[in-house]
């Protein structure tokens, strides 16, 4: 195998390992016979951390009454059915059920489903809910999902809206409040528990058992179903549904800053407030599978009751990088890139995302054209370095016959051979390390390509973005035009690169085999990724042509010193 190719692979490994040091990231519900729209599997979670006793809880605060929502209470033969309350905001509409005082759905008005239904994206189906609650007290375990709450108060102050639910429990009562901001997907959740055993109690927050797909490729969307967890002292990590066997339970020790359920583009997360009480632990359990794909799982976060209350923030919306970044707490890393290579890929992905978002805002162009300009810009910025590296490579090629002759002549005298080799390098103003620079054209664009590979798998900014004949640059090209152009441009680049070079059977074989392999590999990947790679290759062709012509003009007979 060509030595320069091996050197390129070695340098690539060095770059991707060193990058994290420079740019690294900082370190089930019950069945109510009166309402079958809230049925989910019982998680059976029990807390294992018992905090010290605390002071007696204060009295429950009431919320002033004000008109806010439209709700309906139905009675049938004296039985009270759950009351559904809608909270309508400019960007979303939430529905709450009095059974469990929990949010049961959210509709995102800014995002249309791409599955042909022409509806807005709704994160959970009618058979699931966004959140559920269980109360763990030393004397009792209370399933709040089976508890009928009363909409105690609603309020509206300016653009801020709020709901408060109240219910009696054995030995006390519970109040759960929700506060909304008009242009945010973040809902502030707080609660109070009045009970003699509250000082040693816990609240269990149950996340959705899965998210509803609204994508054109629902199978691909299901493959991205996962929970993400951010321990307070570690980086965020993901647990795909597919990695959980049915019934398998994983305990995630605390303290935990946030936990979230997500699919390819959307996320439901429970975040502990800044400087607030973190979750004590979390339990993830694999769900039953009706086929080969894992579409169900359960996750429960345990929060200790402090001063008779609890509080967290609920995010239900898109995985928009900037929006998540503003929330802080490393929530922008709720979609960990790179799998087991996260520590290597995540820094590059963050840098690439910042650049692409800046270009989109500055140039006011669609992301298709942004990718074209980005690909050209990367090649143009690397042009001087590539030019120098290619010329150094040509010098090394011209020196090779002379170095080979020295190695043959002094093979019995290694010290003299080393001395003569160093003399040849000095005479030509080079060193043994000059050959490394010839690998840079192959090396430098690779980290960006790796980062884009993962960025395109989950970046909602690319979702549904058309470009030319492509209906969605986040999906594969239905006509396979872009990957074929990418493969042909790669082949042309290789052929031009071999012009006026000494015969090299290995290089010739790679020039034919590698483009075919890459084309097959890229066929079903995002068309935007293929677009970027094709533009990179096409932009590099003029430089490769100039270098090959220069190589032909400067060619010298073998064994002749330049």
Structure overview:
This protein is α+β, with helices and mostly antiparallel strands and 562 residues long. It has two domains: 3-20 and 363-553, no CATH class; 79-329, Beta-galactosidase, Chain A, domain 5 (Distorted Sandwich). It has helices at residues 3-23, 218-223, 321-327, 342-363, 367-409, 414-427, 434-437, 440-443, 446-458, 481-498, 505-522, 527-553; strands at residues 71-72, 75-76, 79-80, 84-88, 92-97, 102-112, 120-122, 132-137, 140-143, 150-157, 160-169, 172-180, 186-194, 202-206, 226-231, 237-240, 249-262, 266-271, 279-286, 297-304, 309-318. A hairpin with a 4-residue loop joins strand 5 and strand 6 (102-112). The radius of gyration is 30 Å and the shape is elongated. The two termini are 27 Å apart. Mean pLDDT is 79; it is low at 4-9, 15-78 and 556-562.
């Amino acid at each position: 195998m060509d030595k320069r190719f091996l050197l390129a692979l070695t340098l690539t490994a060095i770059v991707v390992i060193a990058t994290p040091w420079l740019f690294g990231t900082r370190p089930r519900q019950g069945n109510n016979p009166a309402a079958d729209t809230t049925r989910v599997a019982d998680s059976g979670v029990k807390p294992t951390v018992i905090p010290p006793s605390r002071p007696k809880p204060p009295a429950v605060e009431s919320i002033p009454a004000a008109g806010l929502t439209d709700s309906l209470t139905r009675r049938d033969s004296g039985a009270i059915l759950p009351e559904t309350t809608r909270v309508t905001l400019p960007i979303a509409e939430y529905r709450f059920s009095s059974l469990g005082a929990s949010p049961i759905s959210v509709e995102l008005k800014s995002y249309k489903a791409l599955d042909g239904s022409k509806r807005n994206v709704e994160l959970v189906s009618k058979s699931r809910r966004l959140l559920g609650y269980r109360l763990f007290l030393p004397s009792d375990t209370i399933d709040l999902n089976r508890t009928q709450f009363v909409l105690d108060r609603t309020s509206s102050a300016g653009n801020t809206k709020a709901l408060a639910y109240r219910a009696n429990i054995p030995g006390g009562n519970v109040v759960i409040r929700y506060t909304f901001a008009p242009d945010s997907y973040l809902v502030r959740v707080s609660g109070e528990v009045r009970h003699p055993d509250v000082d040693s109690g816990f609240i269990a927050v149950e996340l959705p058992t899965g998210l509803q797909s609204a994508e054109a490729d629902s199978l691909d969307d299901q493959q991205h179903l996962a929970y993400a967890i951010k321990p307070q002292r570690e980086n965020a990590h993901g647990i795909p549904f597919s990695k959980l066997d049915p019934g398998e339970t994983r305990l995630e020790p605390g303290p935990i800053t946030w936990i979230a359920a997500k699919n390819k583009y959307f996320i439901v997360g429970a975040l502990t407030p800044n400087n607030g009480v973190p979750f004590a632990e979390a339990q993830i359990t694999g769900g039953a599978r009706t086929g080969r794909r894992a579409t169900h799982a359960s996750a429960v976060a345990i929060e200790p009751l402090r001063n008779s209350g609890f509080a967290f923030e609920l995010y239900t919306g898109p995985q928009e990088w900037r929006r998540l970044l503003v929330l802080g707490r490393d929530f922008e890393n709720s979609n960990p890139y790179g799998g087991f290579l996260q520590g290597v890929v995540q820094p590059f992905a963050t840098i690439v995302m910042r650049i692409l978002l800046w270009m989109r805002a500055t140039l006011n162009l669609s992301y298709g054209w942004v990718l074209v300009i980005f690909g050209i810009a990367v090649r143009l910025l690397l042009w001087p370095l590539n030019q120098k590296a290619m010329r150094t490579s040509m010098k090394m090629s011209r020196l090779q016959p002379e170095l080979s002759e020295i190695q043959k002549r002094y093979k019995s005298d290694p010290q003299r051979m080393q001395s003569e080799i160093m003399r040849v390098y000095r005479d030509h103003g080079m060193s043994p390390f000059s050959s490394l620079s010839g690998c840079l054209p192959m090396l430098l664009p690779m980290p960006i390509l790796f980062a884009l590979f993962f960025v395109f798998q989950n970046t909602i900014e690319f979702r549904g973005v058309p470009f030319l004949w492509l209906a969605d640059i986040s999906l594969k090209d239905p006509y396979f035009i872009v990957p074929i152009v990418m493969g042909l441009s790669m082949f042309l680049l290789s052929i031009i690169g071999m012009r006026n070079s000494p015969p090299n059977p290995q290089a010739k074989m790679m020039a034919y085999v590698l483009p075919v392999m890459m084309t097959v590999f890229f066929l079903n990947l995002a068309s935007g990724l293929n677009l970027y790679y094709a533009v990179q290759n096409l932009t590099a062709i003029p430089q490769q042509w100039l270098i090959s012509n220069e190589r032909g003009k400067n060619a010298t007979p073998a064994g002749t010193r330049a």
